Amino acid sequence: MAETINEVKFSDAGMAEIQRYISHYPEGRQKSAILPIMHVAQAEFGGWLSPQAMDKIAEILNIQPIEVYEVATFYTMFNLKPVGKHVLEVCRTGPCCLRGADQVIDMLKEKLNIEEGETTADGMFTLKPVECLASCGTGPMLQVREKFYENIDTEEKLDQFLETMRNTEVETPYHQAQ
Ligand code: FES
């Protein structure tokens, strides 16, 4: 990862996407593009936002770095330290817990040999319990990038899910944007 803000470089495709988001807003209102730009940065820089990457976003939007840090620390979808290939965001809010979310988290800890917030030794998975993902009727559930995996209510389903993820390549979401 880059050591200084000057070493933080977006790809040409990433910069084009950033400019496209900024163009959606009137002059002086570029800050409104902060969320999609943070997603571009996270996708470009290995799935997490370093302080230098956030400083770069602030520079691009002509805002104070603290304004980026505030957003990054509010939303759990942004990672503030290096993560694995797949970040398993497991909902642990009430309705999902009633349907076994705690057991899913415990099984993941045991199967992956990690604690919450940690990444497996092979760099494949990061375990990240989060609050409600608005799929309460299909819990226990988890999210990996933009995709929901629902009704993970047996160990067999969890094993199938992990096997699927091990064979899933990561796509860069913003390249699919219209
Ligand atoms: S409680 Fe789990 S998605 Fe809402």
TrEMBL record:
Family matches, as PROSITE patterns: COMPLEX1_24K
Keywords linked to the UniProt accession: 2Fe-2S, Iron, Iron-sulfur, Metal-binding, Oxidoreductase
Taxonomic superkingdom: Bacteria
EC number, as in UniProt: 1.6.5.11
Cofactor: [2Fe-2S] cluster
A Pfam short name: 2Fe-2S_thioredx
Gene Ontology molecular function: oxidoreductase activity
Coiled coil: none
Similarity remark: Belongs to the complex I 24 kDa subunit family.
NCBIfam families per record: nuoE_fam (TIGR01958), PRK07539.1-2 (NF005722)
Protein name: NADH-quinone oxidoreductase subunit NuoE
Organism: Pontibacter populi
Gene field: nuoE
